[in-house]
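Exam prep: given the inputs below (a chain plus nicotinamide-adenine-dinucleotide), describe the expected output before reading on.
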Amino acid sequence: MIIEPKIRGFICVTAHPTGCAANVQHQIDHVVIKGAIPSDRKRVLVLGCSTGYGLASRIVTTFGSDADTVGVSFEREPAENRPASAGWYNNRAFENRARAAGRKAVTIEGDAFSDAIKAETIEAIKANLGQVDLIVYSLASPVRTDPKDGVTYRSAIKPYGQQVTSKTLNTATGEVSEITVEPATEEEAQATIKVMGGEDWELWIKALSDAGVLADGFRTLNYTYLGSELTWPIYHKGTLGKAKGDLDRAAKAIRATHGENSANVVALKAVVTQASSAIPVVPLYGTLLIKVEDEMGLGEGPIHQIDRLFREKLQGEVTLDDESRIRVDDWELSAPMQKELEKRWAQLTTETLPALADLPKYREEFMRLFGFAVGGVDYSKDVDPRVVE
Ligand code: NAD
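Solution:
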């Protein structure tokens, strides 16, 4: 079939196998060209391995440090006349390339929040890796069913405590307008913490520990966004920020049980991913950030951030902030960049957007998440949606 993009709201419901495979290859090339990353952590579990920061983590550990990996993600399989999710194509493309490089790569597709998938993953670790010495937690989901009581919680990405009025962007039309978002109820805030807070991370570490598959001296990382003050009202000080704050609590609890170096939250920069494009205000900030960081020669996507995390920040004595976080958001939050972003933010209107920000590149990066707009791919070619190179 000929696969074309079909955009519905914040998501593209189709994905292209050849384009997704090319994306995976480009990320591998980025790491390989930079050379080996010294690391003793050769047995890695990546939760949320199929897209965004999780996929980049799997690629960096495999192709930078010769690690064998088990990955977990939630996907839609292809059918004869229906493409799979982008993550399904990414998983297959990654596995093919990792195995060709002599690395083990086993992927479990299902609900990582469930006890059943945790048990299946532990069996896969025992059979393929024995134990794990690095666990990357990179799940981003709007919904979680608590395995203890079967209650399903939905996150609400809203301000906390007071309503927020902010500029926002319709990425389809390029229109900049003002939105007012009402604050979350306490129930919505608690539900968001249930979904995106640290509880499931702790459950994973406990399940792995109880099963005896955590290697001595293991480390676990969980990704957060603190971000620019421009997005604080909707993000850092909102329900999502509250949930992310709960990761600091969970990291402390894991360290109390497993040792001072066992768990860290890692603060990363804003990038275009399926998760981030659904957050109000963030896409407008993203279009501005893309332009300013490119002008400053500091543009980074997920693979650049995660490469820098493993190649620089996790080598030798690891530098932590006062919440024991590792900071890779240093370039985004640097004073010159934030000053420029704030200046432009104040001037942003539908009319000034093309000069101040880079909506075309944002759109291209969004399409690329689904394997479209990838250079060198012939989209007019008939492809079998069940096959990935
Ligand atoms: P993403 O949407 O690209 O990836 C999410 C991953 O989680 C995918 O592999 C998906 O399959 C998996 N997943 C979702 N629900 C699942 C479930 N129930 N079971 C198994 N797998 C499931 O998201 P991302 O932007 O890479 O986010 C990853 C982490 O990085 C999040 O914690 C996010 O907050 C953080 N982060 C993101 C940004 C950003 O700008 N995108 C910035 C800083 C930190």
